[in-house]
Amino acid sequence: MRIVKLTNDTKKNLLDDLLKRSPNNYTEYADTVQEIVNNVRENGNKALFEYTKKFDKADIHEGNILVTKEEIEEAYTQVDAHLIEVIRKALANIRTYHEKQRQYSWFDTTEDGTMLGQKVSALASVGVYVPGGKAVYPSSVLMNIVPAKVAGVKNIIMTTPCNAEGKVYPTTLVAANEAGVDAIYKAGGAQAIAALAYGTESIPKVDKIVGPGNIFVALAKRAVYGYVSIDSIAGPSEILVLADETANPRFVAADLLSQAEHDELASAILVTTSETLANQVSAEVDGFIKELSRGEIMQKSIDNYGYILVADSMDEAIEAANDIASEHLEIVTANPFEVMTKIRNAGAIFIGEYSSEPLGDYFAGPNHVLPTNGTAKFFSPLSVDDFIKKSSVIYYSKEALEPIHQDIIDFATSEQLTAHANSIKVRFE
Questions:
Q1: Among residues 289, 290, 307, which one has the least CA distance to residue 298?
Q2: Which member of 60, 159, 257, 261 lies 3.0 to 4.6 Å from 294 by CB, making a disulfide possible if both were Cys?
Q3: Which of the residues 178, 238, 284, 327 is marked catalytic?
Q4: Dihedral of CA 383/384/388/389: which sign?
Q5: What is the pTM of this model?
Q6: For residue 181, what are the CA distances in angstroms to 73, 114, 177, 217, 380?
Q7: Are 229 and 238 in contact, with CB atoms under 8 Å apart?
Q8: Cα(90)–Cα(203) distance, integer angstroms
Q9: Known catalytic residue at 368
Q10: What is the pLDDT of residues 35-61, one digit of tens each?
Q11: Which of 98, 238, 262, 328 is catalytic?
Q12: Are the beta carbons of 106 and 118 closer than 8 angstroms?
């Protein structure tokens, strides 16, 4: 891995490199995606089935687009029984964590006859997109469905690509069924996002779309945003390890590569106060890449977006971590909890050498759908909050309104909104 001295210039160059990975920079695909979205919006199933045939080589129609109960039962026979148990254990942890995020309606009253409050309602319908290309991610199925379920969403539907024979990954079906999905449709890519956003003869329109995908899925979500809500336009995965001389270089190298193996655009960064650790980690990374599968992907990721930054002090290292605002941040220092208190920007924070990033990906409970590309400065992980909406509740009696009604009239008049003022005035004529 490249080892560089942490300076303002090297940090700026790194941030510029990372931003190049943003879906917003792939505008050359935007017109193609918009054409797909418009076609599905106008022609519904006809366009959806044509794109499925073109891109997935599958003959999908009204009679087989919906995954049947029998197909789900068949999937259970094709998935190792131990893996099903692991999925159920992870599901329990994820559900328990998200249940603590529940919000409730509240109302405050006063003796003079006012009631103010907030009514919390779950979204009526949510669409979960699940990729089906290079790899299968049942963990993402759980992470997207469970918070919606905990929030109280009544209709959770999932779309995922099928293979040329019209089959969906068995582990995807098992995870979705265990999480409590209401319906699964065989549709992928930008065309599936359009179907969820606008509805077709087979796929119902939803209020919000969540879930990861490739650049075409990301751009399609951006194209339909406003007509429906979306979770985010996620970029490639990333990890930043903040370490001092006490860190185990083999552990650090393994954790960096846990994200580099996702794809060539993934970013793995070590910020350390120890030049010795920097060199040790670099050597360990080289060794692991030779041993592990997906070595070519990891090498490209490390070559293009991998960095080891050597800082003069831990405060300088922490400042860099906050500026980078990584999706995943591991703290492997002598006093990790003290360092954690100084972290402002990170999607998920992993503390100590036995809290490696895959623990969060699969099992611990917090959501692994996290802000990327520096958006952790203002975005949060996917949560129950993403599947609810809030309405303000206002009640005033005549006795409560009378003492302050002239104040409202004066305020409205100052804005030259006479009808507003009149709406209050007529009640006290």
A1: 289
A2: 261
A3: 327
A4: negative
A5: 0.92
A6: 14, 41, 6, 21, 24
A7: no
A8: 29
A9: no
A10: 999 999 999 999 999 999 999 999 999
A11: 328
A12: yes
